[in-house]
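Hi Y.,

Following your request, here is the sequence exactly as I used it, all 165 residues.
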Amino acid sequence: MTSSTAKRALLYRFSRQPVEVIVSVGAYFSAQSLEFITPDGLLQQAPFTEIKALCFFSESGPADLFTAHNLFERRPKVPGLWTRFTFLDGDQLDGILSHNLLEWPNTGFVITPPRASSNRQRVFIPRPAVVATELMGVVGRSAIARKQMLREKAADAQAQLKMFD
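Below is the corresponding structure, written out as tokens. Let me know if you'd prefer a different format.
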């Protein structure tokens, strides 16, 4: 049985004002377009070439994803890949990508933006909207690196001489 959860989001387009939309989590994008419902109840599609970003939220707030706190002021503490995206119109946005490359959809990137809150939880960025991507740093460790470190510690503990046996 599939989930019927719908998410509220703010759709940013290159040539228009941001608009509040509702998307179905399981099937909100196809290979070439994004499908959404407007507040008026109209089902619409927008090609990825027109979309700048889709910002998911739980509480309405100002549409300031690209105007306020769009870059990290200092190194983030959330584990992941600290990435800076440059868009077609020259705007920049920082975000945290997952360490797991398999979680990245083919159609774009899902990031955690700076100062994530109830009005900007996650952001979907379509690949055609991005001109350049910079890796600013790796924060935290991946699960594989953590397991390797634990194995090395266990091997070192067994190699340690026992004084009181």
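The two ends are 58 Å apart (CA to CA).

Thanks again,
Q.
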